Amino acid sequence: MIFHKKLILWYLQNKRDMPWRETRDPYRIWLSEIILQQTRVAQGLPYYVSFTESYPTVFELANASEEEVLKLWQGLGYYSRARNLHTTAKYIAYELNGIFPKNYKDLLKLKGVGDYTASAIASICYNEVVPVVDGNVYRVLSRFFNIDTPINSTKGVKEFKELAIKLIDSDEPAEYNQAIMEFGALQCKPQTPDCTICPLNDSCEGLKNDTIAVLPVKLKKLKVKKRYFNYLIFLYKGKLTIINQRLGKGIWQNLYEFPLVESDSEIDVSEIKTSSVFMELVSDKDYKMTLYQDSFIVHKLSHQHLYTKFYIIEMSEKPNLVHKTEFVEVKNINTYPVPILLGNFIDRFFKV
Protein backbone atom coordinates (compact mmCIF):
# COMPACT_ATOMS: atom_id res chain seq x y z
CA MET A 1 0.00 0.00 0.00
CA ILE A 2 1.35 3.44 -0.91
CA PHE A 3 2.37 6.12 1.59
CA HIS A 4 -0.71 8.37 1.49
CA LYS A 5 -3.18 5.47 1.58
CA LYS A 6 -1.49 3.99 4.66
CA LEU A 7 -1.64 7.35 6.43
CA ILE A 8 -5.32 7.89 5.64
CA LEU A 9 -6.22 4.37 6.79
CA TRP A 10 -4.32 4.94 10.04
CA TYR A 11 -6.06 8.30 10.47
CA LEU A 12 -9.55 6.88 10.04
CA GLN A 13 -8.80 4.32 12.74
CA ASN A 14 -6.95 6.59 15.21
CA LYS A 15 -8.01 10.24 14.81
CA ARG A 16 -9.09 12.22 17.84
CA ASP A 17 -12.57 13.74 18.00
CA MET A 18 -12.16 17.49 17.56
CA PRO A 19 -14.95 20.03 17.03
CA TRP A 20 -13.25 21.56 13.98
CA ARG A 21 -13.25 18.15 12.32
CA GLU A 22 -17.04 18.17 12.32
CA THR A 23 -17.31 21.11 9.92
CA ARG A 24 -16.09 22.50 6.61
CA ASP A 25 -17.05 26.06 7.61
CA PRO A 26 -14.01 28.17 6.62
CA TYR A 27 -14.56 30.55 9.55
CA ARG A 28 -14.24 27.74 12.09
CA ILE A 29 -11.39 26.02 10.27
CA TRP A 30 -9.52 29.34 10.03
CA LEU A 31 -10.17 30.04 13.71
CA SER A 32 -8.89 26.61 14.77
CA GLU A 33 -5.77 26.89 12.61
CA ILE A 34 -4.84 30.33 13.97
CA ILE A 35 -5.35 29.14 17.55
CA LEU A 36 -3.29 25.99 16.96
CA GLN A 37 -0.32 27.84 15.46
CA GLN A 38 2.53 27.20 17.93
CA THR A 39 -0.01 25.76 20.40
CA ARG A 40 -0.74 22.20 21.48
CA VAL A 41 -4.26 20.87 20.85
CA ALA A 42 -4.92 20.32 24.57
CA GLN A 43 -4.15 23.97 25.28
CA GLY A 44 -5.90 25.38 22.23
CA LEU A 45 -9.17 23.43 22.43
CA PRO A 46 -10.74 25.45 25.31
CA TYR A 47 -9.89 28.68 23.47
CA TYR A 48 -11.54 27.40 20.30
CA VAL A 49 -14.68 26.59 22.27
CA SER A 50 -14.66 30.02 23.97
CA PHE A 51 -14.20 31.88 20.67
CA THR A 52 -16.90 29.96 18.81
CA GLU A 53 -19.33 30.44 21.71
CA SER A 54 -18.55 34.17 22.04
CA TYR A 55 -18.30 34.82 18.29
CA PRO A 56 -20.34 32.19 16.37
CA THR A 57 -19.67 33.89 13.03
CA VAL A 58 -17.00 36.15 11.57
CA PHE A 59 -19.38 39.11 11.94
CA GLU A 60 -19.52 38.83 15.74
CA LEU A 61 -15.74 38.58 15.87
CA ALA A 62 -15.36 41.59 13.60
CA ASN A 63 -17.74 43.66 15.74
CA ALA A 64 -15.89 42.87 18.98
CA SER A 65 -13.33 45.35 20.30
CA GLU A 66 -9.65 44.45 20.12
CA GLU A 67 -9.55 44.59 23.91
CA GLU A 68 -12.30 41.96 24.14
CA VAL A 69 -10.48 39.70 21.68
CA LEU A 70 -7.18 40.06 23.52
CA LYS A 71 -8.88 39.29 26.84
CA LEU A 72 -10.40 36.08 25.46
CA TRP A 73 -6.98 35.17 24.00
CA GLN A 74 -5.21 35.79 27.34
CA GLY A 75 -2.83 32.99 28.28
CA LEU A 76 -2.44 31.61 24.75
CA GLY A 77 0.65 33.68 23.96
CA TYR A 78 1.97 35.07 20.67
CA TYR A 79 -0.60 37.86 20.87
CA SER A 80 0.07 39.10 17.34
CA ARG A 81 -2.06 36.10 16.30
CA ALA A 82 -5.05 37.60 18.13
CA ARG A 83 -4.51 41.05 16.64
CA ASN A 84 -4.19 39.59 13.13
CA LEU A 85 -7.24 37.40 13.75
CA HIS A 86 -9.30 40.48 14.58
CA THR A 87 -7.96 42.48 11.63
CA THR A 88 -8.74 39.66 9.20
CA ALA A 89 -12.22 39.15 10.67
CA LYS A 90 -13.03 42.81 10.04
CA TYR A 91 -11.67 42.59 6.50
CA ILE A 92 -13.73 39.49 5.69
CA ALA A 93 -16.88 40.84 7.33
CA TYR A 94 -16.75 44.39 6.01
CA GLU A 95 -14.86 44.07 2.71
CA LEU A 96 -15.80 40.55 1.59
CA ASN A 97 -19.34 40.45 3.03
CA GLY A 98 -18.42 37.56 5.30
CA ILE A 99 -17.26 35.28 2.48
CA PHE A 100 -13.81 33.73 2.86
CA PRO A 101 -11.48 33.43 -0.15
CA LYS A 102 -11.99 30.04 -1.77
CA ASN A 103 -8.48 29.10 -2.86
CA TYR A 104 -4.94 28.86 -1.50
CA LYS A 105 -3.60 31.83 -3.46
CA ASP A 106 -6.26 34.27 -2.19
CA LEU A 107 -6.25 32.88 1.37
CA LEU A 108 -2.53 33.60 1.49
CA LYS A 109 -3.31 37.32 1.16
CA LEU A 110 -5.12 37.42 4.52
CA LYS A 111 -3.21 38.93 7.42
CA GLY A 112 -1.83 36.25 9.75
CA VAL A 113 -2.32 33.49 7.17
CA GLY A 114 0.87 31.85 5.90
CA ASP A 115 1.58 28.88 3.67
CA TYR A 116 0.56 26.25 6.21
CA THR A 117 -2.72 27.90 7.27
CA ALA A 118 -3.74 28.73 3.70
CA SER A 119 -3.04 25.11 2.67
CA ALA A 120 -5.06 23.72 5.57
CA ILE A 121 -8.11 25.90 4.88
CA ALA A 122 -7.97 25.40 1.10
CA SER A 123 -7.72 21.61 1.35
CA ILE A 124 -10.18 21.06 4.21
CA CYS A 125 -12.86 23.54 3.10
CA TYR A 126 -12.51 23.50 -0.69
CA ASN A 127 -10.73 20.20 -1.39
CA GLU A 128 -7.87 22.01 -3.14
CA VAL A 129 -4.80 19.80 -3.66
CA VAL A 130 -2.28 21.77 -1.60
CA PRO A 131 -0.16 20.06 1.08
CA VAL A 132 0.31 21.31 4.63
CA VAL A 133 3.82 21.42 6.06
CA ASP A 134 3.99 22.00 9.81
CA GLY A 135 6.22 20.67 12.58
CA ASN A 136 4.46 17.31 12.57
CA VAL A 137 4.81 16.94 8.80
CA TYR A 138 8.50 17.89 8.87
CA ARG A 139 9.07 15.19 11.47
CA VAL A 140 7.22 12.44 9.57
CA LEU A 141 8.84 13.21 6.22
CA SER A 142 12.37 13.71 7.54
CA ARG A 143 12.24 10.39 9.37
CA PHE A 144 10.47 8.33 6.70
CA PHE A 145 12.83 9.51 3.94
CA ASN A 146 15.87 9.97 6.25
CA ILE A 147 16.39 13.62 5.27
CA ASP A 148 18.84 15.61 7.37
CA THR A 149 18.41 18.99 5.65
CA PRO A 150 17.62 21.51 8.43
CA ILE A 151 13.89 22.16 8.41
CA ASN A 152 14.34 25.83 9.37
CA SER A 153 16.73 26.58 6.50
CA THR A 154 15.72 28.07 3.14
CA LYS A 155 16.85 24.89 1.40
CA GLY A 156 14.93 22.71 3.85
CA VAL A 157 11.66 24.64 3.53
CA LYS A 158 11.83 24.33 -0.28
CA GLU A 159 12.88 20.65 -0.25
CA PHE A 160 10.15 19.51 2.14
CA LYS A 161 7.45 21.54 0.38
CA GLU A 162 8.36 19.97 -2.96
CA LEU A 163 8.29 16.51 -1.39
CA ALA A 164 4.93 17.20 0.26
CA ILE A 165 3.47 18.24 -3.12
CA LYS A 166 4.55 14.92 -4.64
CA LEU A 167 3.08 12.86 -1.79
CA ILE A 168 -0.36 14.42 -1.28
CA ASP A 169 -3.39 12.34 -2.21
CA SER A 170 -5.00 14.29 -5.07
CA ASP A 171 -8.33 12.49 -4.53
CA GLU A 172 -8.51 13.14 -0.77
CA PRO A 173 -6.32 16.16 0.03
CA ALA A 174 -8.29 17.11 3.16
CA GLU A 175 -8.10 13.63 4.66
CA TYR A 176 -4.43 13.28 3.74
CA ASN A 177 -3.38 16.61 5.26
CA GLN A 178 -5.20 15.91 8.49
CA ALA A 179 -3.85 12.35 8.51
CA ILE A 180 -0.17 13.26 8.25
CA MET A 181 -0.49 15.98 10.92
CA GLU A 182 -2.32 13.63 13.29
CA PHE A 183 0.20 10.89 12.57
CA GLY A 184 3.03 13.20 13.59
CA ALA A 185 1.20 14.26 16.74
CA LEU A 186 0.18 10.79 17.96
CA GLN A 187 2.43 8.17 16.34
CA CYS A 188 5.64 9.74 15.02
CA LYS A 189 6.07 11.79 18.19
CA PRO A 190 9.09 14.01 18.89
CA GLN A 191 10.35 11.87 21.78
CA THR A 192 10.51 8.06 21.88
CA PRO A 193 7.93 7.14 19.21
CA ASP A 194 6.85 3.50 19.32
CA CYS A 195 8.18 2.37 15.96
CA THR A 196 7.22 -1.28 16.62
CA ILE A 197 3.54 -0.48 16.02
CA CYS A 198 4.05 2.08 13.25
CA PRO A 199 2.23 1.17 10.00
CA LEU A 200 5.13 2.68 8.03
CA ASN A 201 7.93 0.81 9.83
CA ASP A 202 8.58 -1.62 6.95
CA SER A 203 9.68 1.21 4.64
CA CYS A 204 10.90 3.94 7.00
CA GLU A 205 14.46 4.92 6.06
CA GLY A 206 15.04 6.67 9.39
CA LEU A 207 14.23 3.46 11.26
CA LYS A 208 16.49 1.43 8.97
CA ASN A 209 19.37 3.84 9.49
CA ASP A 210 18.75 4.35 13.22
CA THR A 211 18.35 8.12 12.82
CA ILE A 212 14.86 8.54 14.28
CA ALA A 213 16.20 10.18 17.46
CA VAL A 214 18.14 12.89 15.60
CA LEU A 215 15.54 13.81 12.98
CA PRO A 216 14.34 16.31 12.02
CA VAL A 217 17.42 18.54 12.06
CA LYS A 218 17.07 22.21 13.05
CA LEU A 219 19.62 25.00 12.83
CA LYS A 220 20.75 26.30 16.18
CA LYS A 221 18.38 28.78 17.78
CA LEU A 222 19.21 32.41 18.37
CA LYS A 223 20.77 33.21 21.71
CA VAL A 224 18.17 33.75 24.42
CA LYS A 225 18.13 37.29 25.76
CA LYS A 226 17.63 37.99 29.47
CA ARG A 227 15.44 40.94 30.49
CA TYR A 228 14.72 42.10 34.02
CA PHE A 229 11.18 43.36 34.70
CA ASN A 230 10.47 45.16 37.97
CA TYR A 231 6.75 45.87 38.26
CA LEU A 232 5.39 48.56 40.56
CA ILE A 233 2.05 47.57 42.07
CA PHE A 234 0.49 50.72 43.48
CA LEU A 235 -2.29 50.47 46.04
CA TYR A 236 -4.17 53.61 47.01
CA LYS A 237 -6.26 52.88 50.14
CA GLY A 238 -6.37 49.26 48.97
CA LYS A 239 -8.96 50.14 46.33
CA LEU A 240 -7.13 51.67 43.37
CA THR A 241 -4.09 50.56 41.41
CA ILE A 242 -2.32 51.88 38.31
CA ILE A 243 -1.94 50.24 34.90
CA ASN A 244 -0.92 51.32 31.42
CA GLN A 245 -1.19 49.84 27.94
CA ARG A 246 1.91 48.56 26.15
CA LEU A 247 2.06 50.42 22.83
CA GLY A 248 4.41 50.12 19.89
CA LYS A 249 6.08 46.98 18.59
CA GLY A 250 7.54 44.24 20.77
CA ILE A 251 6.04 41.71 23.13
CA TRP A 252 2.49 42.10 24.47
CA GLN A 253 1.50 44.93 22.14
CA ASN A 254 -1.78 46.57 23.30
CA LEU A 255 -1.98 44.44 26.45
CA TYR A 256 -2.03 46.12 29.86
CA GLU A 257 0.60 46.00 32.58
CA PHE A 258 1.63 47.72 35.80
CA PRO A 259 4.24 50.52 35.73
CA LEU A 260 7.52 48.89 34.78
CA VAL A 261 11.16 49.51 35.56
CA GLU A 262 13.14 47.42 33.07
CA SER A 263 16.87 46.77 33.39
CA ASP A 264 19.59 44.71 31.71
CA SER A 265 20.61 43.07 34.97
CA GLU A 266 19.32 42.60 38.48
CA ILE A 267 18.80 45.85 40.41
CA ASP A 268 18.04 46.44 44.09
CA VAL A 269 15.35 48.43 45.89
CA SER A 270 17.44 51.60 46.03
CA GLU A 271 17.80 51.60 42.24
CA ILE A 272 14.06 51.07 41.87
CA LYS A 273 13.40 54.09 44.09
CA THR A 274 15.74 56.32 42.07
CA SER A 275 14.30 55.28 38.70
CA SER A 276 12.47 57.97 36.74
CA VAL A 277 9.31 55.85 36.59
CA PHE A 278 9.11 55.49 40.38
CA MET A 279 10.03 59.10 41.13
CA GLU A 280 7.49 60.55 38.71
CA LEU A 281 4.67 58.40 40.07
CA VAL A 282 5.47 58.83 43.76
CA SER A 283 7.00 62.32 43.80
CA ASP A 284 7.38 63.42 47.44
CA LYS A 285 4.35 61.50 48.74
CA ASP A 286 4.55 59.01 51.60
CA TYR A 287 4.55 55.34 50.77
CA LYS A 288 5.26 51.88 52.13
CA MET A 289 7.13 49.58 49.77
CA THR A 290 7.56 45.81 50.07
CA LEU A 291 8.91 43.14 47.74
CA TYR A 292 6.22 40.58 46.88
CA GLN A 293 8.68 37.68 46.85
CA ASP A 294 12.46 37.48 47.04
CA SER A 295 13.09 35.14 44.14
CA PHE A 296 12.57 35.98 40.49
CA ILE A 297 9.55 34.71 38.61
CA VAL A 298 11.05 33.56 35.31
CA HIS A 299 8.76 33.80 32.29
CA LYS A 300 10.17 32.12 29.17
CA LEU A 301 9.33 33.37 25.69
CA SER A 302 10.74 32.01 22.44
CA HIS A 303 13.89 34.18 22.32
CA GLN A 304 13.89 35.89 25.68
CA HIS A 305 13.54 35.10 29.37
CA LEU A 306 11.91 37.65 31.64
CA TYR A 307 13.23 37.75 35.21
CA THR A 308 10.41 39.41 37.10
CA LYS A 309 9.82 40.90 40.54
CA PHE A 310 6.80 42.73 41.92
CA TYR A 311 7.08 45.64 44.33
CA ILE A 312 3.96 46.51 46.33
CA ILE A 313 3.66 50.26 47.01
CA GLU A 314 0.91 51.26 49.44
CA MET A 315 -0.06 54.94 49.54
CA SER A 316 -2.54 57.06 51.51
CA GLU A 317 -2.36 59.77 48.84
CA LYS A 318 -3.06 59.18 45.16
CA PRO A 319 0.15 58.67 43.15
CA ASN A 320 0.67 60.80 40.06
CA LEU A 321 -0.56 59.66 36.67
CA VAL A 322 2.21 59.81 34.05
CA HIS A 323 3.25 58.03 30.86
CA LYS A 324 -0.35 57.17 29.89
CA THR A 325 -0.99 55.43 33.19
CA GLU A 326 -4.54 55.20 34.50
CA PHE A 327 -6.27 54.37 37.76
CA VAL A 328 -8.22 51.12 37.93
CA GLU A 329 -10.38 49.83 40.74
CA VAL A 330 -8.85 46.68 42.18
CA LYS A 331 -12.17 44.87 41.88
CA ASN A 332 -12.09 45.44 38.09
CA ILE A 333 -8.42 44.64 37.46
CA ASN A 334 -9.08 41.26 35.88
CA THR A 335 -11.32 42.70 33.16
CA TYR A 336 -8.26 44.04 31.32
CA PRO A 337 -6.28 41.89 28.86
CA VAL A 338 -2.85 41.23 30.35
CA PRO A 339 0.04 38.81 29.67
CA ILE A 340 -0.32 35.47 31.46
CA LEU A 341 2.66 36.42 33.66
CA LEU A 342 0.62 39.30 35.09
CA GLY A 343 -2.63 37.37 34.99
CA ASN A 344 -1.15 34.77 37.33
CA PHE A 345 0.14 37.49 39.67
CA ILE A 346 -3.27 39.22 39.72
CA ASP A 347 -4.98 35.95 40.60
CA ARG A 348 -2.58 35.33 43.49
CA PHE A 349 -2.20 38.83 44.90
CA PHE A 350 -5.54 40.53 44.34
CA LYS A 351 -7.66 37.36 44.60
CA VAL A 352 -10.41 39.02 42.56
List the helices and strands and how they pair.
Layout: H1 3-14, H2 26-36, H3 41-54, H4 58-63, H5 66-73, H6 80-94, H7 104-107, H8 115-126, H9 135-144, H10 154-167, H11 173-186, H12 205-208, E1 225-236, E2 240-245, E3 256-257, E4 260-263, H13 269-273, H14 276-282, E5 288-291, E6 297-300, E7 304-315, E8 326-329, H15 340-349
Parallel strand pairs: 1-7
Antiparallel strand pairs: 1-4, 2-3, 2-8, 5-7, 6-7
Can you offer a commentary on this structure?
With 352 residues, this protein is of the alpha+beta class. Helix content is 41%, strand content 14%. Strands 1, 4, 5, 6 and 7 form a 5-stranded mixed sheet that branches. Strand 6 and strand 7 (304-315) form a beta hairpin. Helix 8 crosses helix 11.
